[in-house]
User: What shape does this take?
Amino acid sequence: MEAKKFVSGFSKMSKVDKINWLSDFYNDHGKLDIKMFEAFWHQDDSLQAVLENFSENTVSNFPMPFGIAPNFHINNKVYAIPMVIEESSVVAAASSAAKFWMDKGGFKCEVLGTVKVGQLHFKFTGDIEALKAQFEELKSDLIASVEAITTNMRKRGGGVKDIALIDFSSEEPDYYQLRVSFETCDSMGANFINSVLEQFGIELKARLAVLFPNDRVEIIMAILSNLTPNCLVRATVECPVTELDKISPAFSGAAFAEKFRMAVRIAEIDPYRATTHNKGIYNGVDAVVLATGNDFRAVEACGHAFAGLSGSYASLSHCSVEDGRFKFWLDLPIALGTVGGLTKLHPLANLALELLGRPSASELMEIIAAVGLAQNFAAVRSLVTTGIQKGHMKMHLKNILTQFDATVEEGQQVEQFFSDKVISHSAVRDYLSQLRTKVHQ
Ligand code: MEV
Assistant: This one.
């Protein structure tokens, strides 16, 4: 073991010292381009300090493209949507789907619920039936015990909405849970929920000690749940199938609608396809979640768990073709905040929310569901018509050119040459090398 490679006090070192330490650490393994870290520091020291404070042991920043998908017509408003994503063709696909639906009534979005969830997990060795009988009274005591913590949230219309006692003792001896429903208004509410739950733990232990003096209560843990199936938004697009006639010269609108419906149905039936189908939805969802300073890990965890709630992982979107009408919709469970957290602290998240007109959390749920549906529409439209690679590789071409250090002139020649051909990494490499050989002949 290379004991000399362990370090203590790393977090206390300055940024420069951390980088120098890294340089020594990798000395044996070859060159580490440490100047690259510095090249990505923000030129404004105060902004750099803001970014650094979001996390720990920071040595640099990791920039990602911040793009805009315009023409999103959602509930009779038009949005230019900020999207942060590194994958080529995602923003182009979202923009193209937005434009397609723009004059067909746009995206109709509706929030179906805003309930957030927290859990207090505990062990109790006493008579659970006696506890259940006294639970309503206990519930009032628990809610009263967090009055000070919930004052501001209650003023905004939120707070603790309900508490359920869940009996898991058949799965694990003496294990019970308080499952708590919350309304956290425009904030994501993680800190609020966790503070309330921890106080519930203290109160529950104290109350049960009085009610059941001969029994044992042990609080195992108190934490929010990222599964929020009732924090749900639905986005829908629909039109007569005749309005889909122009999508592909190979199909009538009716034939396209049927093929599209079948593609969505496959994702409802088969988890292998559902995973990729939903990944396409999250291409759009995550990009806006990230741009607006929300927690994309929480959003993804929730969506995938929701997609598997029936017992088999399935598509989050659905499609019907009935009486000559094509209807495509997405049910997205998503817990977000538009105040607190990074939303104001990160200058670009703040700007993204400004661009969206300072939406409430519910409006942001609707916007993000529309983007997820648009992204899904664009992907499935390509899959059932041209195939995904045509558009994707066209967008990816710039990355390939960068990788081969192509000049502007070379880039133009490559684009011209591949305008009617299938683009692949190796084909571009070979064509570039042909071009370069010609120049040097
Ligand atoms: C690629 O990032 C996303 C897709 O695979 C989604 C899909 O297959 O539906 C194109």
